[in-house]
Amino acid sequence: MKQERVILSFVMVLIGLLVAGVAFYLYQGTKTIPASKLKTVAIKSPTPSATPMGVYLSLDNPQDESVVTDKVLAVSGKTVPGATVVILTSSSHQVVQPSQQGDFSTTITLDNGENLLQVISFGPDGLSQTAQRTVTYSTEQF
User: Hey, what's the torsion of the CAs at 141, 107, 128, 92, to 10 degrees?
Assistant: First the structure.
């Protein structure tokens, strides 16, 4: 008898949900929005500005979280022309001047194990952009 009550309760709840869903659907179907309340929205496409926007920095080498077996690592990338690039590790720092096109390249010496490499580009206008890479130097053969 108790089991029949539980089953009957579930059936009644399902029927109630079904009736409420149909009633809500019919109520929403009768709603209309008058034309005076509708608004047209125009989306304008952005136009590029003529003035350059600050400084950018992209690193081509090394890749983040890479494992290398050479203690000397090449660091290369691109930034705005006239910027100053500073490359920091836990044991050293280097200052690099990019070419007229903004390309830069140098080598650094890695410490054993994990090395956090931070590259900062300081633009001629004083703004800076930072990129970080984690490079692990290992002598293990994989």
Answer: 80
Q: Residue 72's beta-bridge partner residues?
A: 109
Q: How far apart are CA 54 and CA 121, in angstroms?
A: 11
Distance CA 73, CA 59 (A): 13
∠ CA(68), CA(72), CA(77), 5° rounding? 85
The edge-to-edge listing of strands for the beta sheet with 57-61 is 57-61, 72-79, 103-109
* pTM exceeding 0.85: no
- Both structure tokens of 96: 């690099």
CB of 127 closer than 8 Å to CB of 106: no
Nearest alpha-carbon partner for 74 in 43, 103, 32 = 103
CATH number of 57-137: 2.60.40.10
> Do 82 and 123 meet the contact criterion of CB atoms below 8 Å apart?
yes
**For 59-100, how does the pLDDT look when each residue is reduced to its tens digit (9 = 90+)?**
988 888 888 888 888 999 999 888 899 999 888 888 999 989
By C-alpha distance, which of 73, 70, 105, 68 is closest to 89? 73
